[in-house]
Amino acid sequence: MIFPDVSWAAIAPEIALVAGAVAILLVDVQWKPEPRVLGGIVALSVVAAAVLSVGQWFRLDTPSDITIPFGGMIAFDRVSVLARFVLLAVTAMGVAGGWRLFERLGRRAAEALALVLLATVGFSFMASSIHLVMIFLGLEVGSISLYVLAGITRERPDSDEAAMKYFLLGSFASAVFIYGVALLFAGTGRLALLGQRAFLDANIVTRPAVLLIGMALVIVGLGFKVSAAPFHTWAPDVYQGAPAGVVGFMAAGAKIGGFAALTRILFTGFPLMADEWASVVAIISALSMGIGVVLALVQDDVRRMLAYSGVAHAGFILTGVVAGAAAEPGIWFYLAAYTIQLVAGFAIVAAVTGSAAGRSGLDAFAGLAVRSPFLAAAFTVTLLGMAGIPLTSGFVAKFGVFVSAWQAGFSWLVIVAVLASVVAFGVYLRVIVVMYMREPGEAASPTPSTAARWMLVAATVSTILFGVLPQPLLDLARNAFSV
Amino acid sequence: MLTWLILTPVVGAAVVALLPRRRPELYLPVGVALSLIPLALAGVLFFEFETGEAGFQFLQQALWYEPLGISYRVGVDGISLGLIVLTAVLVPISLAASTSIDRRVKEFVVYILLLEAGLFGVFVALDLFLFFVFFEAILVPMYFIIGIWGGERRIYAAVKFFLYTAVGSALMLAAIIALAVMHARQTGAPSFDFADLLALDLSPSTQRWLFAAFGLAFAIKVPIFPLHTWLPDAHVEAPTAGSVLLAGVLLKLGTYGFLRFNLTLFPQATVDLVTVLAVLAVVGIIYGGLVAIVQPDLKKLVAYSSVSHLGFIVLGTFALTSGGLQGGVIQMINHGLTTGALFLLVGMIYERRHTKKIADFGGLAKVMPVYAGFFLFMAFASIGLPGLNGFIGEFLVLVGSFATLPVYAVIAAFGVILAAVYLLWAYERVFTGVPDKPENQRLVDLSGREIAILAPLVVLVLVLGLYPKVLLDKVAPSTEAILDRIEQTTDFQVPEPGRLADVFVAEGEGR
Fold first, then answer.
1. Which of A323, B74, B225, B464 has an alpha carbon within 20 to 30 A of A143's alpha carbon?
2. Where is pLDDT greater, at B229 or A258?
3. Residue from B452, B458, B431, B456 nearest B374 by CA
4. B155: closest CA of chain A, how far (Å)
């Protein structure tokens, strides 16, 4: 029996996260500490993972420096490290932003925090894997953690409903994905992405039907995870039903993991079939943008609005995917900018309408500018960032993927995208109107937790900073890719 | 220098934002004082500007994002110089006129100063990415200014304003991306630099598409008929300062954009599409004038008069003659001064009577003689009475467009008459006769502060009316350069009486 080569360095950050999750569960059983102690453990393991990732980044000399330990399951390269950075930032901000929820959960806080860490591990593996089976394992670890998180406030029926819906549809999507993987295996005889690429390099596939169906199913499965239309129907209900404190993390983590896997599969495994998948992805992208912005426009619940706007953003990111590997730095800039805004947005929703509540009606935001100028200003910057107004990171992000798509010849898609952005302005302006131009009702002034406050400051500053000076982050992203 | 011009209002906004909450009476005076710094800078700019040079001056450049060819490049030429000074003049004035803003004053001052920074940015940007950033970013403060401090239907007006203008600029973004990608195809590297893009070789059909995309964005801003419907709403609902800056400067973004980008980047398309734009401009002139006549609301009347006046600017621009282009540029400044002043005057009477309905007034000249004097002066300037600034601009436009578009020029001349009709008729209804309404009899005349606000505008109107050479000499080389470029890159030749540079530029200073 050949024992696969082991590289602890490649998976050290994930080990730190798993150790954190295990420690939380053990400590909780033994000492039943306050949630803040558990929060400390989360912070510790996230910081440890981040430090280890920085170490990995410098250990890898060039963008093209790639080793594939564990029998070709894991890719040890800068792409994985970059994805993990974004993921860790989102995890830390998600936990900080929803901290009130974890305090309220009391005895269940340990479960919830451990699940957050495990979900991070799952998505991190999705990003760093270069083998279809490993991608599937990461997907399942992440997804199952999220199903449970969605229902963590189990005393509320709509939380239960959200968890159930997410679980059923999510499992179905996983099944679709794994069926696609099976067909890709049938078509190429390989499961490792590099192997599949080599196979397509060396052979001419005369009847590619199996491959095409397999690829379509893989795109559908991951399209569900990133809530691209028409596979988005679960998102509004889950975003609304799940406790506000964790939705931000759930949505952001799933998007990062999903896009990491999608780009890895399409760009690494099947660049030679780009003509076939690009047009499919372009149609999904256009549908997502169109359906997302139009339905977001008519929502009266801020969380459903953010859910549909998330569908639209999936579409915007897909315009970059269409353009192929050259767009990868742009895609990751977009993911970083958007997911940070996403967790910030939900942190504010949680602060305003309650971290466990199931409704976040637009009325709850009336006159927020008077009741809490800080939250209103932070939400405004976040929403303008999502809208892609210049001088925010959202604009640089949109601009980057649009340029790539135009260069790749998808000018029609860019025109659809800019028009969708205009409708999206309307979506976000509605909320700003309510915050600044409506009189406050009887509602009390919301007070976010200290952790949430700092997290919002960080998110707001980064949104503006990377909007004005995008160069450092873009350079970082470019350094991860050999384009 | 130009970077400071953009930064000082931003710093000013930060200073105002940090003022203590307990001293709300400080916000406005500090805001006015801080906005005098960019005004001083603009003054220095104006006098340091090398007259007779066609190119960009005070150039500054820094790499912003290299792989995409995006750089921070700013510069000023004769076309943008006047608009910068206009912006710098109007901001302190409109702030000083905003004493009736009674809530959230701090935010108001901050938004106005941020708006000023954005406007400077648009006029100095020489990189299309940078231009777009400012062009779009301006919407945000203006949106808040209308939406928070506006009239009854302010939210509707603010959202309409934002979305209307955003539609246009979205397609312009696509066109900008297209230009950069074409630059990458032709030279190997993408670039958003205006000078680089001028060197592009574009087929006529490509030019037409891109012209349309840019043109839509600018046409909505101007606004060119039939894209003007956002304007009356935005103007009527906006607070006085908002209206002044909207009419005074924001509308000029459209005409400036046409002149700066459409004419130079897409000369062939410009020549091909002259008729379309000329028709729309003339329709705008006549339509705006006719609608202004029947407005029962004084502010709406001034708003529709803008549609008419900006039609002149567009007509002049697309006449493609020396007179037309110079007249267009001069008229941008003139319209900013006179319409800005008219909006200030309407705001002043509104603060006293809380109505803008013409029918509610009558005989005000007896009660408020000074006010009536200022109003009549500005109305005459707007109509184009010789000796005042409006005359120079409209005369140049009409003379210039007669050379290439005689029929349109003749029709447009009726617009001048219409202007006399709607403004003088409004003056008659508001000011002459006996003040028979008791509310009107107790009105107090302008205070010293209000006179001080209006005085600089009166001075500028007189200066530009009597001695337009100060500005024309700086404008002419830049507009001539645009015509040169069009003549060199297309078959179009400006007909003989069209290049009247020697007549309008004083002897010895012609090209």
1. A323
2. A258
3. B458
4. 7
For residue B509, the model assigns a pLDDT of 42
CB B326 within 8 A of CB B393: no
Q: Please give the ipTM for the structure prediction.
A: 0.77
CA angle B41, B47, B53 (to 5 degrees): 115
Q: Which residue of B has its CA nearest to A418?
A: B170
- How far, in Å, CA of B255 to CA of B261, rounded? 10
Contact A288, A232 (CB under 8 A): yes
pLDDT of residue A23 exceeding 90: yes
Residue owning tokens 């006029």: B123
Sign for the pseudo-dihedral over CA of B337, B338, B344, B345: positive
User: How far is the C-alpha of A358 from the C-alpha of A354, rounded, in Å?
Assistant: 9
Q: What percent of chain B has pLDDT over 70?
A: 97
Interface contact flag, B148 A474, Cβ < 8 Å: no
Give pLDDT, residue B497. Answer: 64
| CA A465 – CA A336 distance, rounded (Å) | 13
Closest Cα of chain A to B374: distance in Å?
Answer: 35
Decide: helix, strand or coil at residue A205: coil
CB contact under 8 A, A437 and B154: yes
Burial (0-12, 13-18, 19+ Cβ within 10 Å), B272 = middle
CA distance A286 to A281: 9
Alpha helices (runs of H) in B150-203, residue ranges in sequence order: 154-187, 194-198
The structure tokens 């950033």 sit at B133
| Residue pLDDT, tens place only, A61-99 | 777 777 888 877 888 888 888 899 999 999 999 999 888
Domain boundaries, chain A: 8-478
Dihedral of CA atoms B409, B411, B412, B418 in degrees, nearest 10, equals 150
Per-domain boundaries in chain B: 276-511
Query: Do A402 and B177 count as a contact with CB atoms less than 8 A apart?
Result: yes
The residue type found at B141 is P
pLDDT of residue A408 exceeding 50, the answer is yes
d(CA B337, CA B415): 19
d(CA B278, CA B202): 24
Rounded distance between C-alpha atoms, residue B420 and residue B189, angstroms: 54
Enumerate the H helices of B19-127 as residue ranges.
Answer: 27-48, 78-96, 105-124
Q: B-chain residues within 8 Å CB-CB of A399?
A: 129, 173, 177
Q: Which chain B residues have a beta carbon less than 8 Å from that of A407? A: 181, 184
CB-based contact A403 B167, cutoff 8 Å: no
Which of B91, B87, B246, B102 minimizes the C-alpha distance to B165?
Answer: B246
In tens, the pLDDT along B441-450 reads 778 888 888 8
Mark which residues 48-77 of B lie under 8 Å from A by CB: 64-68
Write the DSSP symbol of residue B100. T
Query: Is B167 part of the contact surface with chain A (CB cutoff 8 Å)?
Result: yes
pLDDT at B511 exceeding the cut of 60: no
Tally the C-alpha atoms within 13 A of residue A368's C-alpha that lie toward its C-beta.
24
Instruction: Find which of B140, B160, B230 to mutate to test the A interface (most A CBs within 10 Å of its CB).
Output: B140
Q: Which residues contact B102 (CB under 8 A, 6 or more apart)?
A: none
* DSSP code per residue over B207-253: HHHHHHHHHHHHHHHTTPTTS-THHHHHHHHS-HHHHHHIIIIIHHH
B174 and chain A: CB distance < 8 Å anywhere? yes
Strand partners, B74: B60, B125
- Tell me how close the Cα of A383 comes to any Cα of chain B, in angstroms: 12
Per-residue confidence (pLDDT) for residue B447, from 0 to 100: 85
Interface of B with A in 323-382 (CB under 8 A): none
